[in-house]
Amino acid sequence: MSSRLRHPLAALFGGVLLTLPWVYIWATGAVDGLSTLGRVGVSGVAVLGASFLLAWGAETAEKDVPRAFAIAVLAVLAVAPEYAVDALYAWQAGQGDPAAGNLAVANMTGANRILIGIGWSGIALFSIYKAYGGNDDSSVQTTDSRLGDYVSLDRDIALEILFLFAATVFAFFVPLGGGIGAVDTIVLVGLYLAYILVIVRGDVEEIEDQVGVPAYLQRRPKLVRIPSVLVLFGYSAFLIFTAVEPFAHGLESLGLQYGIPEFFMIQWIAPLASESPELIVTAYLVNKARSTAAFNALISSKLNQWTLLIGTLVVVYSISLGQYGVLEFDTKQAAEIWLTAAQSFFALAILLNFRISVREALVLLVLFVSQVGIEFAIIRTYPEALAEQYSIYLLLAYTVVYVAATLLLLAQRRDELRELVTISRSTMREAWHGAGSGHSAD
Questions:
Q1: 34, 36, 231, 356: least CB-packed within 10 angstroms?
Q2: pLDDT tens for residues 350-361?
Q3: Residue environment code for 183-205, b if the CB has 16+ CB neighbours within 10 A, otherwise e
């Protein structure tokens, strides 16, 4: 009996089982009949189940497509709810809602900063914590100091870091145009499409030994394996699209009941909920001693949010407007973009040596949490107009701190930056001149 329970299909069935209450409620239209807490509970459990299904699909797909491409698909699906929320605000802006453009930028910048401030730092700390507990993860390295212990990253992510670096540098100039426009779309979406063209032409690497559901599915013939991956991706995408929005709105309602300002909820609580599939998936990968794959997924998510998400907002806005238009935002949102770019700039400088230590992860986490905490205190303490002005000063001050720390790191890591560029150029040359030679047989 116990051996049958350990069969991978039992885990797969368990993951699907977590999602069925939500599917029933969604199909019968009974969502509105649930209490706020009930809606959060049922949709949240469905998001959890969908995250496992998505991770299993991506790991299984590594047998047939380049790992970077499988992780890129995982990243796009996992953060799809964030796209949906921002697209909704951009659409409302096109319909004449003057505040919606600011909300779109606030939600986007909040999601991006959460991804680094909580995602990158949290997964690094979780990876090292699991290694202390006996998790056999070769990526975690110990030193004489606990603060110096680090997660060693695969040099194959050099390409993602370089493209993200380019997008981050460009993002500093976005507010100077008074809004998000066609040039931003061309540059940012173009960067992401160029990245996808490179990784999709790469060879299928020798896959890591898998266990559980991915190992079981990878042993199936292609005629079974590939449809299984497509079904896992499709079903998890359906769940994420349908369940994350009520999950996020339910959390917003609960927060408002406790006096948390609505704008603060839209910038932080809603994005945290929409990022939950990504955070769950990466925690799952760390738990399987695959911290490198977890970081690959997080970096890929940041890349597509920092390029596609920003670049497509003006497209949705223009369609809603009925003509081309620039998605405008106010001074505070310009400061939000600068701070988000500065945080990304600093985080990428940390990864130049393909490692992130406990000390560096804590710095990322403390800078993120302190800025959010101080801004929340400002909002609760001062009248709205004065609070907004003080918030802008705070955002600009943290931007200066991030940029100064980045420039210091770049000065110290010039050799690592050159190595990163060299590795990326080699990857691009191999993709264009040597693609297709390494696909593994079934």
A1: 231
A2: 999 999 999 999
A3: ebbebbbebbeebbebbebbebe
CA 348, CA 424: separation in Å to the nearest integer? 15
Mean pLDDT of the chain, nearest integer: 84
Distance CA(173)–CA(177), nearest Å, equals 7
Which residue from 181, 174, 168, 173 is spatially nearest to 90, judged by alpha carbons?
181
SS3 of residue 322 by DSSP: coil
Q: What is the distance, to the nearest Å, from the Cα of residue 145 to the centroid of all Cα atoms in its chain?
A: 30
pLDDT, average across residues 277-283: 78
Tokens coding 166: 């380019």
Give the torsion through C-alpha atoms of 72, 75, 81, 82, to 10 deg.
-90
Read off the CATH number of the domain in which 99 is found.
Answer: 1.20.1420.30
Does residue 75 fall inside a structural domain?
yes
Domain-located, residue 416: yes
Q: Starting at the earlier edge strand, list the strands of the sheet with 140-141.
A: 140-141, 150-152, 355-357
3-state secondary structure of 215: helix
Would you say 398 and 169 are in contact if contact means Cβ atoms under 8 Å apart? no
Q: Does 97 fall in a domain?
A: yes
Given a contact cutoff of 8 angstroms between Cβ atoms, the answer to whether 275 and 117 are in contact is no
pLDDT for 34 equals 84
The residue behind tokens 């509105």 is 32
DSSP 373-396: HHHHHHHHHS-HHHHHHHHHHHHH
CA distance 61 to 221: 13
Domains in the chain, number: 1
In the predicted model, what is the mean pLDDT of residues 186-196? 91
**Span of 24-33, 80-89, 182-191 with lowest mean pLDDT:** 80-89
The residue among 420, 316, 260, 353 whose CA lies nearest residue 94 is 316
